[in-house]
Every structure is written in C-alpha cells, then in structure tokens.
Amino acid sequence: MMAMFRRHRTLFGVVWVLILFCIAFAYAMFQGGFVSWFVFFGFVPILVYTLIVALYPLGDIRIERVMSKHELYADEPLEVTLKMTRRVPFPLFYLIIEDHQPHNILKKHQNWKRENAKKLLSLGFQLGTTLTYTIEGMPRGEYVFKKLSIRTGDIFGFIQRQKEIEIEDTVLVYPKMTPPESWSPLDLAYGGQRRSRKSFEHDVTSIASIREYIPGDRLSWLDWKSTARTNHLMTKQFEFPLNNDVILILDCTVNSADREGEAFERSVALAGSLMEKALRTESSVGFVTVGKETQWLELENQPYQKWKILNHLARIHQESSAEVSVAINKYIQHLSHHSTVIFVTTKVSKHLLLLFNDLMTRGLAIEFFLVTQNDNREGTRVLEQLHGMGVVTHHVTDDHFNRLTKGSGSLATS
User: Are 407 and 368 in contact (CB under 8 A)?
Assistant: First the structure.
C-alpha cells in the first residue's frame, strides 16, 4: 500500500488539492459572505501553482557532474562540481539535488555521509546554478558514481516529485606511496654466492660482445670505439649480468586480527612504495597478489609497469582465508633463478617458514615485511626464526616508510 502511494504520490496530491478546492468552493457557495469567498479565492493560486508543479517537465532540468580528478592518491581531496541548467524559468519553491555516493566510499570513509552530497536550493527564476562539494582524504579504492536525483514540490507539500538522472563517473584512488629513500631491493652478487647491498649493475669486466644501442641502455655501457667505427651507437653486451628481477608478493587474504583493515591498507601502501623504489633502481618488477584468486603481473621495467601495478593496487581488497603458501607454490615456476622476492603480509604462519626455505633452495633471495598495528610476540618470534634462516625481515607498525633501511644479516644463496 505504502509502495503504491509513493509511486503515485503526485497523482494523489493533485486529487487531494482538487478535493480541498471543491470543499472551499462548496463552503463559499453555501455559506456566502466575504470570509468564505476570500478563503476560496485565496486557495485558487495554491491550486494553480500545485497543478503547474505537477505538470512541470523535470526532464528540462539537466545536471552535469565534473570531477576535479579521475585518478588520485589516497588522502588527497576530491572536488565534485554539479552544474544544473534548465530552459523553463518557472519559480520552483525548492529543489533538492543529491549526488548518490558509491556504497564502498560510505563504508570506507568514516567521516563522509550521504547527506554531505545533498543540497537544498531555492532557484526562483534562475536558469542554472553550480554546486560544489569536497570529499577530504579519499580512501584507496575504485569508486563509481552512477546517478543523481532531483526532488521538488509545492509550498505545502501536497506534491512531491522526484527524478533520477543516470550519470556514471569512475574515480580511481591509488594507495598513498612514500618510497623509502634508505631502502633498496636486495641483489645477488656475482655468482650468487653472497648478498650485495649495491644498486643493480652489470659486471663490467665480463664483456661478451657488442650490439646496437637499445633505448634504456646506460651511457656507461656504450662502446665508443665501435660507435665511431660504425657511425651507430653500439652497446657492450655483458656475459654475466647481475639478476635484478624483483617479484613483489602481497598477501590479500583475510586477517581476523585486522578487523578494521588498517594493517591491510598499510600493507597495500607499503607494497606500492616498495614497487616504485624498485623501479627507480632499474630493476624488472613482477607483482603477485594472493587472495580469492592469485593474480600475476609479468616482470617489466618499463614506466607503464608502475601504472599497471597501481591500477591493480587501487582495486584489490581483502578476501578469502586461504593459506598463502599453497597459492604461491603454483607460481614458483614463474620465478627466475637468483631473483629477489619481496613478501608483504599482515600475518605470519609456520607454513611461510617452509615456503621461504623452498624458495631459498631455488636460489631466490627473500625480503619479508610484516605489517601490523603494533608489536606482537607471535610476529616477533616468527621474524626471529626467518632471520635465522637468512631471510631479511622488517616489522612495519606505522606509515613512516622512510624509516625503512636495508635489511641486516647475511643471506646464503645456492
């Protein structure tokens, strides 16, 4: 019954106003006198205005949504501008414009309410107006703004009309990144016998041949004699290049101890920060996320790799409670010999010890980042065990990634 009333509220409102008009007319006819006719003629403008509001074409009202940015980083503000225009200058008593907010932004942003994107206007005879609202501190994620609604009515509330306008805009919010300046990925020294803390480079003493220059080659690799002889840029080809492949693995499985998801958001931001720093060192970066499904982004060292990974990081969320080590085992064959594996997670388990031991026997270097809200004994104990195995470990409990330094301790490799 109520649903039918809401659906036909305008019709019921018009009928009710007409009934009141008939009552006022009947009262004036039977009662007579100045007062009764004054009431009747005083009601006529209300009737006329109500009927015009009921017949007013809401399709004449057009709204355009303009985003200040469609891509931004977490904690940055998003400014949304709504431009309203119309052709019929009828004086609507009020007009409510609401920009319907994505469900996930209302869930993630504790200080943002749907009422913040709702505005009450008194247009008068204006043909257009502009509204602006700002969402401060946008949380990471993908947000789809799908529709707006407009609502108007008469002075006494007899008539209420509403229309929804489908306008879709997508906003992608990347994780906030703070590349640690004092940290750099581990590297395997010549022969893979020890860990090198130096930036990735080739062994310049082992020149195998000469080849033509390829964009991205360093200036120090150019062979000037061959360049002068052939009149083309020629680059030295090294026999034993140091492996600078970095595979970054992010655990997206649900952690029961992280109910608010704060540690997970920090781990996503950390993964993005480490990725950007690794790409700065001219390493090839591959990216793996483990959740309900395991997704693999191939090794690349091109500038677009950063945006491929950031697009992925913006969309991921915690899901599933599967054991990470089981999922990673399926992708071990993709890991090249003597690569560096950076593992970021919010929880630890004994299965990780077995996984890392297996990876290290394959000649892979492991750097482990445990992200938690605060220090905990279980995490510290497992970190000590991993460190004893030769895994470089970091315990991250805040967002100050600049404090990260190169891991300590030697790592034996096969």
Answer: no
The three-state DSSP-derived secondary structure of the chain is CHHHHHHCHHHHHHHHHHHHHHHHHHHHHHHCHHHHHHHHHHHHHHHHHHHHHHHCCHHHCEEEEEECCCEEECCCCEEEEEEEECCCCCCECCEEEEECCCHHHHHHCCCCCHHHHEEEECCECCCEEEEEEEECCCCCEEEEEEEEEEEEECCCCCCEEEEEEEEEEEEEEECCCCCCCCCCCCEECHHHCCEECCCCCECCCCEEEEEECCCCCCHHHECHHHHHHHCCCEEEEECCECCCEEEEEEECCCCCCCCCCHHHHHHHHHHHHHHHHHHHCCCEEEEEEECCCEEEEEEECCHHHHHHHHHHHHHCCCCCCCCHHHHHHCCHHHCCCCCEEEEEECCCCHHHHHHHHHHHHCCCEEEEEEECCCCCHHHHHHHHHHHHHCCEEEEECCCCHHHCCCCCCCCCCC
The per-residue pLDDT for range 101-160, each reduced to its tens digit, is: 998 888 888 888 888 899 999 888 899 999 999 999 999 999 999 999 999 988 888 888
The answer to whether the CB of 407 falls within 8 A of the CB of 387 is no
Can you give the pLDDT at residue 108?
A: 85
